[in-house]
């Protein structure tokens, strides 16, 4: 016991490092006395230093420490030896251990994700299960300041969006508790010195030297130059990360006012609609932030395929002088502007939108949106309206056909010589582009367009009355 106690004592040379971590932990309230803490340990220098540090404060903080480790099976026997190494070290230091072996290759095949993504998913899945089983409060990770700097430089290369340049959070909710990173205030060299002073044994993963992984390439080729320019670069990047998170948190909170002016669908099909004129009354920073919050809602936070170019396309669409425009985003998301209305929804094929029904006198058809259209015999004395159309039965051939628009459709309008394209009528009436695909029109069996429902009526079917009249009634339940 005396030997174990001496093993975790600090000496003057590394007292500053421990003070840095203690201050960082207390400043961010990462760990509190009497908690159960899982330490994620791979056997490498960073995680072993973390495990040793937690053991050094275990008694004074009255903590229960559990080392957790995962064998990903990516390096054969060496991976299994890493797991055994961590287990043996936990036993030597008198702390509990929980380990697991996972099948990364099978998960890759089933999910279609890459090696690193699959390994991370399975690793965190195990950690979350252990949080629940061991009733843990905290999962501690060994990421340090140089890791943070690498992450942020990679984010900067991938995206020009400020909200993407935030690095790893110091803490975040995880399982039944939270995930914390107590070493983000340290450099890699400080951790190496700590291990050397305390004779902490470690396992070295040779794959960390391979540059076929992006992070390893940044670590080997980019970070040395930046650290040479500024040895405190890791501290600068950690401070920047915290400030960026604070700033973006405030902006997102303010952007909630923008979202309050929008309509979000409440059914299975996700749709967002908003007024362009109202949207433009907000500051540009809030407009951009609201755009990304909308995408998080539609993509369920899976926005990896969205770049700053999509943001610029979106803003250009809003400020363009064209009244109608459309953008195609990843995974079939469409952004449609129709005058003052902007709609974001996932694309449906034109074939899904098309319909065609036959309608005889005394019958009713129900359209896909729930609207009703029914036909009956009538007289010319009955008044027409936007939702009623009358025609001389002698000039039409039954049954009526109720359908969607086709390319090249034209109709003869009442009080007008010649014909006009249905497309041009939609434009004149300022009908949003996304509504035109499903807008109902009525023809007779010869294909003559009689009624563009609610908009325009044909005049030819009322000439030279035979005394027998037909009436069509349109009723949209959503408007009553």
Any key phrases for this structure?
480 residues; alpha+beta; six-stranded mixed sheet; five-stranded antiparallel sheet; 16 helices; 22 strands; disordered N terminus
Can you tell me about this structure?
This protein is of the alpha+beta class. The protein contains 16 helices and 22 strands. It has helices at 2-7, 12-28, 45-61, 77-92, 104-111, 115-133, 145-158, 188-198, 214-229, 233-259, 276-279, 284-299, 308-319, 350-353, 422-428, 433-436, and strands at residues 36-40, 64-71, 96-101, 138-140, 171-174, 177-180, 263-264, 271-275, 324-328, 333-338, 341-346, 356-359, 364-366, 372-378, 388-392, 400-403, 410-411, 420-421, 441-443, 449-452, 456-457, 469-475. The strands form 5 sheets. The chain has a 6-stranded mixed sheet, with helices on both faces. Strand 13 (364-366) and strand 14 form a beta hairpin. The longest helix is centred in the middle third of the chain and has 27 residues, at 233-259. The relative contact order is 0.08.
């Amino acid at each position: 016991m005396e030997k174990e106690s001496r093993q975790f004592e600090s000496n003057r040379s590394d007292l500053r490092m421990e003070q840095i971590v203690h201050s960082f932990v207390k400043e961010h309230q990462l760990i509190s006395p009497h908690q159960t803490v899982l330490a994620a340990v791979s056997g490498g220098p960073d995680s072993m230093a973390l495990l040793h540090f937690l053991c050094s404060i275990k008694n004074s903080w009255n903590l229960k420490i559990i080392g957790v480790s995962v064998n990903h099976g990516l390096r054969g026997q060496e991976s299994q030896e890493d797991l055994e190494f961590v287990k043996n070290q936990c036993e030597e230091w008198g702390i509990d251990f929980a380990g697991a072996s996972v099948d990364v290759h099978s998960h890759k095949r089933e999910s279609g994700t890459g090696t690193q993504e699959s390994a991370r998913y399975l690793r965190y899945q195990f950690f979350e299960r252990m949080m629940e089983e061991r009733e843990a409060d905290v999962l501690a990770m060994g990421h340090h300041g140089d890791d943070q700097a690498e992450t942020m430089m990679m984010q900067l290369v991938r995206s020009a969006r400020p909200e993407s340049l935030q690095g790893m959070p110091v803490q975040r909710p995880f399982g039944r508790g939270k995930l914390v990173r107590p070493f983000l205030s340290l450099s890699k060299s400080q951790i190496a010195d700590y291990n050397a002073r305390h004779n902490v044994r470690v396992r070295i993963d040779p794959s960390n030297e391979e540059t076929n992984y992006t992070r390893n390439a940044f670590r080997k080729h980019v970070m040395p130059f930046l650290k040479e320019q500024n040895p405190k670069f890791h501290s600068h990047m950690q401070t920047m990360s915290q400030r960026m998170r604070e700033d973006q948190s405030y902006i997102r909170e303010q952007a909630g006012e923008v979202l309050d002016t929008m309509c979000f669908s409440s059914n299975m099909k996700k749709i967002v609609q908003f007024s362009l004129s109202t949207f433009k009354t907000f500051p540009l920073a809030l407009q951009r932030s609201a755009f990304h919050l909308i995408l998080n809602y539609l993509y369920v936070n899976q926005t990896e395929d969205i770049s700053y170019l999509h943001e610029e396309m979106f803003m250009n669409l809003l400020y363009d002088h064209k009244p109608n425009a459309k953008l195609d985003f990843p995974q079939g998301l469409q952004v449609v502007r129709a005058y003052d209305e902007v709609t974001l929804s996932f694309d449906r094929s034109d074939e899904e939108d098309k319909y065609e029904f036959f309608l005889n006198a005394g019958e009713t058809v129900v359209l896909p949106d729930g609207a009703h259209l029914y036909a009956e015999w009538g007289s010319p004395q009955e008044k027409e309206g936007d939702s009623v159309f009358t025609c001389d039965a002698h000039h039409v051939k039954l049954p009526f056909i109720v359908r969607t628009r086709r390319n090249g459709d034209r109709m003869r309008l009442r009080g007008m010589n010649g014909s006009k394209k249905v497309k041009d009528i939609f434009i004149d009436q300022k009908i949003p582009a996304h509504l035109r695909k499903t807008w109902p029109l009525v023809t007779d069996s010869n294909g003559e367009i009689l009624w563009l429902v609610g908009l325009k009526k044909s005049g030819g079917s009322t000439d030279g009355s035979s005394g027998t009249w037909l009436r069509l009634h349109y009723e949209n339940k959503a408007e009553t």
